[in-house]
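Model: You mentioned two targets. I'll fold them one after the other.
Researcher: Yes, keep them separate.
Model: Target one:
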Amino acid sequence: MVVRDSHGQLVSVTESTNGYYVPHDVTDEAFDRNFGKKEIVTVDDIKYEKVQYIVKDRHYRVPMKLMFFIPAVIEVSYGSETVTVEAFIFQAFVPLVYLEEDDVVDTQWTIFRKLN
């Protein structure tokens, strides 16, 4: 996460490895369809698909708890009823970050999916 003030000056850079994903077919489908070019990388002799996803120029109202997520629209059935909901299939949590009212937040996601 990169925070810049209203003049574009760098305020802070924060990294988080505290994340969560929904282990479901809808997550795999979103990974396949929505992230563009994928790179094959090897870490500790295990092959992964790697994508990078950047969200720029987010403005947040202060004070606010920062939670970052990538949503997917899914259908959920309960009995005879089916509804469409937005589910947060990828989430990341960052440590305490101080923001001013006009600060701009850019987030860069790096997501790995293990290859079979």
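Model: Target two:
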Amino acid sequence: MTAPTASDTTADRCKEDLVRIVYDGEFARIHRDLRAVLADPVFDPRENLTKREAGLLSYERTFRMQRALGPAVDLVADPMRLFAVTEWSSLLDTTTTALLNSHYNLCLGAILQHGAGRTDLADYIEELSTMSSVGMLMVTELGYGNNVANLATTAVYDPATEEFDLNTPHAGAQKFMPYTGIRDIPKIAIVMARLRVGHEDHGIFPFIVPLSDHNGLLPGVHAAPCPENPGLALDNGMTWFDHVRLPHRNLLSGKMGHLAPDGTFHSAVRGRRKRLTEALDRVNPGRVSLAGSIVAAGRASAYLTVTYSLNRRTAAPGHGREMPIMGYRTHQVAVLGALAKVYAMTCLVNHTKRRFAETHAADVTSLVNITKALAGWEMSEVINTCRERLGAQGVFSVNRIADYVGMAQGVVTAEGDALPRIATTALELLHQTPRVPLPEPPATGEGDLTDPTLQLDLMRYRETHLRETFRTNMRGLAAYEGENPFASLWNDNITTAVAMARGRGVRVAMEQFCSATTDAREERVGEALRLLCSLYGLLEINREAGWYLAEGALTPAQVRRIPALIDETAAALVPFSAMLVGGFNLSGELLRAPIAADDYLTAVDRYIWSRVSPEEQAKVAAIRQRDSVFTLTPRAPKDAETTDDTVPDKSETPVLDLA
């Protein structure tokens, strides 16, 4: 056996350092065994499935994850572990993310939280813990998207029978998008419904509602499948409740109040809106899970695209010359810019996960909302960029990224349009931060724009300026007239609110990225991360260059210089690119993506020909043997840095025998 060289040892140390940073020092405790589960053949690519077959396969994969996770109650109590579950499962089946998140976070988690100490719920907890039934949350209604306070589904209490009558009063009150399209899988839902006792409306509360068993939907539950959702195998449906009877115990009133058997209601939480906020508390970890999952898909997209870009050769200037496509500056800026955003959002999500696990303070809810929105927007852009830069290879599901496109759309639109929520979050931030004078810009015309410290100063200036401008504008109610002057005031300032909230997310991401850079233990890792952090900062400042120029924070000369600085920084990152994606601890073998192979030509060739009949394979093999075409070999050695560890060899993929 050949002894490892010094360069091998250095590469191993660099990878270990990056894995530590990317997975927040928790890879061994939280992530390693989840990564190993993905080696199960159930996660191998399947093609030409019907919608029902694809949906059933996703449920099968969800059950496989459940068997590997240990006691469900312990899992729900460990949010960091729970977040990791959806991050890894999403890489090979984007649908499992939604199923696992809904089951553990939103259904079982809600019962454990709002039913804490109640022994009468043990049967439901056991059923969900073993995944004998799949859990989900039903909030959104066809006529009420983000407007949760006005949900119309009713649960009318009857003291005589000590039961609730759960009913959908009209078409607009149908529960929209829950997973009720496949009817013969046992399922239980947490249904948000309006609690009524006599003529009194106590507001929206969660109820445990069994939906189906192996024979289909239960009496009184009616569901129709939603139209096809490209890229996802979710069995979304629209659900109507026709006077479904529920026992008293199925009300999850928790800290929100107590309903006595005789119908008397008591609550220490004043106001229906506050009770609703408490009832939906489990949505917050669900949002963090979605943010983590889409960033994990962004990491996989960047890994696949960088790996392929270092191997794929194309025409170069000069007669008969070739070079890796990563050699082109346009490709470098697009792909390495995407990689910079992936690292920035990884740092942001890691920070949000830590903060959520530590406290449930109001500012953490704001951070969660901003993180979910910003990560969704940024990774949607990253995934689409990677898909385009892969050319034709990017459109095939086996190469993963095409499926991540659909997942990104699902994350961005989960709970409806993110813009209203992020705007409301901006309003909440005004109450969480003290009023300060409008800031002066950093030293205009001075400093190095590639310096992350200066970039961070500019981001802080922008966030503070937008926040205080927004605060001042929202005090101008006296200038408005009409039936609802506040609505007009809010509407005139909502774009500033969104810009401020996004600016907050970008600033926090940059702070966390800078912190990760200084945390590097290996010199080479620190150098690479500093460049990558600088590229992220340049891209963000360039995005808002017009604003910075208008406010006097940048000079015209600085603004004109930014595109060249982006080009130069991206070019300097190329030698580090394989190492940086190696920090994601992914591989072509794990992802089952032919384009991630060192010899991707042979891997793609073998995979595609494996899809025809054995007879056709034999004919092609005979033709190749006759014409002495045994293998496809790369046309030239790679020109950019890579390692066997970061670009695994998939030449052993079992398909057509070309030799």
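Researcher: Noted. Anything on target two?
Model: Confidence is low (pLDDT under 50) at residues 633-659.
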